[in-house]
Amino acid sequence: MKKYIPLFLLVFLASASITLAQSNDISPSRKQAIDSLALEKVKDLSKYITIIGSKETQFSEANRVMDRAEELFAPDAEMGVSSINRKEIAYYKVRRYFERLMALNYDRVNITWYDIHYISDLERQPDGRYVGVVTVYQRFEGTSLESGLNYRDTTKKDITIYVEKKQTQIAGRTIEFWDVMLGDIRVTETSA
Amino acid sequence: MRKLTVLLLLIITSIQLAPGQGLYSPGSPQDDGRFAASTKQVNQFFRRFNGEESADGKKRYYDTDAQFRDRELRGKFISVLFDNETSSVENSLKSEFLKDVLSENLPQYLNFHKGEWFAEVQTTFIFKGKKEEVTLFMKLQPEGLGYEWVVDKINFKPFKNLFNKPEGDAKGFLHPLSHEIGFMNLRKAFQENDKPESYTPKEYQPDYLTIFLYEMKNGNLKFDNISDVKFHFFQINNWYFELNQFNRPGFNTGWLISNLVKLDAGDKDVVQKYIYDQK
């Protein structure tokens, strides 16, 4: 949480230039600040996934990282996974997805992330929260030493983000800030 | 000494925080341009169609930017927003479309909230123990403080086969003096005829969505999965196009126009009826 404070402040300062009571529209400058915060969370998720998937990660450490990763998500978030040969979506709760990733039967796993992302506009949903989608690409390489088989795929991850205005008390003053939580993630295997 | 402690703490913290494995870590695989070129979200299709992002996709243009909705930029974007590998949209038709959309006097843009576009979602449901395909037509509507997608219509073969109103001599009827006999002939109509729809007005249209919801609430229909999603756009005056997702190698990928039709007067209704296929 502490590491997000500078970004919260950035989002707060970006919003401070606009009269708060004026409207709930998100200005381009505030949107940019929210995008940065969302991207930070996605970067954390990517880092956690890499650690959870790695065979060098101890079981206890992987569990600790899974706890941290789960904290990024809104309750009930799901992963919906499909492949090129199987268009149907396999649904997993986030924790289950991580557990499956940890238990993959390879001797070596290397998960890396392409240097590209796309962040959608933010749309307001009926309850007043904003929702957006961040797209990133992940490369997975798994090696089985016994069979010498190498499995490799590239998946597109479309990550829902929920953006909500929250309040906190700092030194007796009420400060408003925008918070970002991750939601459902659609995982699609690409032909790349 | 205090400075040294802070420095040490900083070094230790940075070791924990930078394992170099996440997004934008050193050593991340580099996109060779394919992912950048791909229209990754429907949202990006809107932006590119309207000329609201930079050519490299790194900057979102707002109405305060000089390049916002730049005509030349839009022209370049729209010409690569077509599926150029599998769809057979004539080049002359594309040019005509571009001319209309990029008109100097009356350029046309896509608007997320303006309606006149909807999603077609192919799903599977378990109906009476059997996996069946159901097409859901979804539309965006204002609700509460924002917007939501709702199911507007459905298409489900088992329902459609239920309502085949016979024609001509095969169609039963209640004779015009039935009222004089207190409609006692309803017994024959409903007990001895398995086509009760015969006794409905000419304009009667079964409401498949209501039946669908009824069956779901009764536990006879259970959601199974989603197999495909596409979009239909009627927002551009006198044009219809279909948006599909193309997941394949190369640079012409993502959400692309796969079908383009120029609409004459009355064509819009015909195309919509064809898509919804409610009869």
In short:
Chain A has 192 residues and is an alpha+beta fold. Helices cover 31% and strands 40% of the residues of chain A.
List the keywords.
heterodimer, A: 192 residues, alpha+beta, Nuclear Transport Factor 2, Chain: A, seven-stranded mixed β-sheet, B: 279 residues, 3 domains, 28% helix, elongated, YARHG domain-containing protein (chain B)
Structure commentary:
The complex is a heterodimer of chains A (192) and B (279). By secondary structure, chain A is α+β, with helices and mostly antiparallel strands. Chain A has one domain: Nuclear Transport Factor 2, Chain: A. In chain A, 31% of the residues lie in helices and 40% in strands. Chain A has four helices and seven strands. In chain A, a hairpin with a 5-residue loop joins strand 4 and strand 5 (130-144). The relative contact order of chain A is 0.18. With 279 residues, chain B is α+β, with helices and mostly antiparallel strands. Chain B folds into three domains: 34-115 and 234-276, no CATH class; 117-163 and 206-229, no CATH class; 164-203, no CATH class. Chain B has a six-stranded antiparallel beta sheet with strand order 3-2-1-4-5-6. The radius of gyration of chain B is 28 Å and the shape is elongated. The chains are: A alpha+beta (192), B alpha+beta (279). The interface between A and B is large, with 45 and 40 residues.
Strand order of the largest sheet of chain B: 3-2-1-4-5-6
User: Radius of gyration of chain A in whole Å, from Cα?
Assistant: 19 Å
Alpha-beta classification of chain A = alpha+beta
> How far apart, in Å, are the first and last alpha carbons of chain A?
36 Å
* 3D shape of chain B: elongated
H-E order of chain B: HHHHHEEEHHHEEEH
How much of the sequence lies in strands of chain A comes to 35-45%
Overall pLDDT confidence of chain B? 91
Can you tell me the CATH topology of chain A?
Nuclear Transport Factor 2, Chain: A
Largest sheet of chain A: 7 strands, mixed
> What is the makeup of the main sheet of chain B?
6 strands, antiparallel
Number of domains of chain A: 1
Number of domains of chain B: 3
Strand content of chain B: 15-25%
Helix content of chain B: 25-40%
Assign an overall shape of chain A. Answer: globular
**Rg calculated over all Cα atoms of chain B:** 28 Å
The number of distinct helices of chain A, counting runs of at least 4 residues, comes to 4
Signal peptide (chain A): 1-21
Keywords (chain A): Signal
Protein name (chain B): YARHG domain-containing protein
Keywords (chain B): Signal
